[in-house]
Amino acid sequence: MLDWLKSPFLTFQEFVLLAGRATVNAVRRPFYGQDLFLQMDTIGVGSLPITVLIGFFSGVIMALQMSRALSQYGATGQVGQITAITLVREMGPVLTALLIAGRNASGIASELGSMKVSEQIDAMRALGTDPVKKLVTPRLLAMCVTLPLLTIIADFVGIVGGYMVAVPLLRLTTGSQYWNNAWRSLEYNDIAQGLIKPLLFAFIIALVGCLYGMRTTGGTQGVGRATTQAVVVASVWIFIVTALVTRIFVNL
Amino acid sequence: MARPKANAPRCILKFEDVSLQFDQPRPALDRVSFEIWSGETRIILGAAGSGKTVIMKIALGLLKPTSGRVSVMEQDVTHFDERQWYDVRSHIGVLFQEGGLFDSLTIEENVAYPLLNQARFMTAGKKPTLDSVRPDVQEALNFVELGNTLTKFPSELSGGMRRRVGIARGSVADPDLFLYDSPTAGLDPITANTIIALLIKDREMRNSTAAIITHRFQDGHLMANFRYNPEKDCLEKLAADSPIRERTKFMVMNEGRLVFEGSESALDASQDPYISKFSMNPARKAS
Ligand SMILES: Nc1ncnc2c1ncn2[C@@H]1O[C@H](COP(=O)(O)OP(=O)(O)OP(=O)(O)O)[C@@H](O)[C@H]1O
Ligand SMILES: [Mg+2]
Questions:
Q1: Atom of ligand 1 nearest to the CA of B23
Q2: Domain extents for chain A?
Q3: Does B128 touch chain A if contact means CB atoms closer than 8 Å?
Q4: What CATH number is given for B11-91+179-286 in this structure?
Q5: Can you say whether the dihedral through the CA atoms of A240, A241, A244, A247 is positive or negative?
Q6: Largest CA-CA distance found in chain B, in angstroms, rounded
Q7: Do the bridges between strand B41-46 and strand B248-254 make them parallel or antiparallel, or are there none, so unpaired?
Q8: Is the CB of B102 under 6 A from ligand 1?
């Protein structure tokens, strides 16, 4: 029983240590600005099209689903409010994070994993650079900047998607009522949890990807294993953390 | 850089009862003790998994021993932290078994990497620029006869060429100790011999200290019996009484234990079935 718990506990401990070292390194010289911009480009710009696509369709689906339920209560005018709140609080952050986990936690893990098995990480340490500073910190910072931005974009595009369904397609409500309704329904509480969540998810995705990549053993086969594990572990933690944060905000 | 090299002999690397245990029941290294002195060439032989790479990684501080003491250049480094290790490592050149070249950097940037990142080459906390180190990089690449590959990427080179880039990167900072992990593994005999010729040339030109991990007994034999002739730019056999013969020492690892240490003639004379597999002796040939 204790043995069974030992390995996840040690992994969690490593995760916390890595998080600490990567964060401390963010404010210590030398800075690797070039690596940071490169990462922001791959994570942020690279993920933009797919984020917009998924965001749009989640808004569309939400409005379609809600149209049935709301018309039963004769409350179709509320469609803007429901779409906005669900997207900003939960769907936007979680869907974007899952998408980025699939796309970038795997990318990070396989890149660092290949570097590990070809002894490039050892070479870095042997030749005078700290791999945490050179590899982990830029990825973590890039993720912390881009994931919240991507989430905001996904939220917005999702509300536009809801509008397309609610106004031109199903004529549930007028355009101005939809936007007014959507905008005024959002409280500070919603926006706060809509931004705190992506920041926490950014830590999870970047650090899980890096941790599993840097722990890779067993050649190219090991890289595949590390990649899969990173995506699964990051996704599970995204759900656990969103449940915890939502629990806290519901009580506020 | 002015520092005594050939004159006063120094103990460059010293292991005292060093053990390392991973999760497996059998230790990866089991109470290993040896010393490498300046000017010496140490050939480390042993079967796959016998702990050769582990020795190298401990000497670089990339792995921490479970017990025992390690000294590098007469400095006890057993309890050094990562920050202190960076300084020690900047005096050690290394060629990794899996290459360890950075795929995302050009050959020039790879070879320049130690000069750009090691603290001892910084002036007032500022890194040198790639332009300022270019002459050193060019010289190191010329030495391995790859002077025209500066802008290529490692993936564009053959296995033997990548090995040579690794040697250039390891020697560019003029290290006091060079660790070569399996420099000839996976190469055809001709390429393997050119690599060994480079190591011999490096030994003679810089009077360097080196540890060479290898499976091939020919590698050790070449190192012990040949010297580089700068006039004719070729290798020639050493006289029977040359002091260089004595400066090439052999050690054999078996399952984490050091089972043999000595000169080539002692290795050839060994009757042990495991040890004699790594020697040129006729008994091995017959079996
Ligand atoms: N990071 C590690 N984690 C766990 N075990 C390891 C690790 N590195 C090495 N080992 C184990 O230590 C032992 C010695 O490995 P080492 O890499 O030194 O072998 P080697 O002599 O270099 O072999 P080869 O000639 O194949 O390179 C092996 O049993 C290996 O499984
Ligand atoms: Mg090895």
A1: 4
A2: 32-251
A3: no
A4: 3.40.50.300
A5: negative
A6: 63
A7: parallel
A8: no
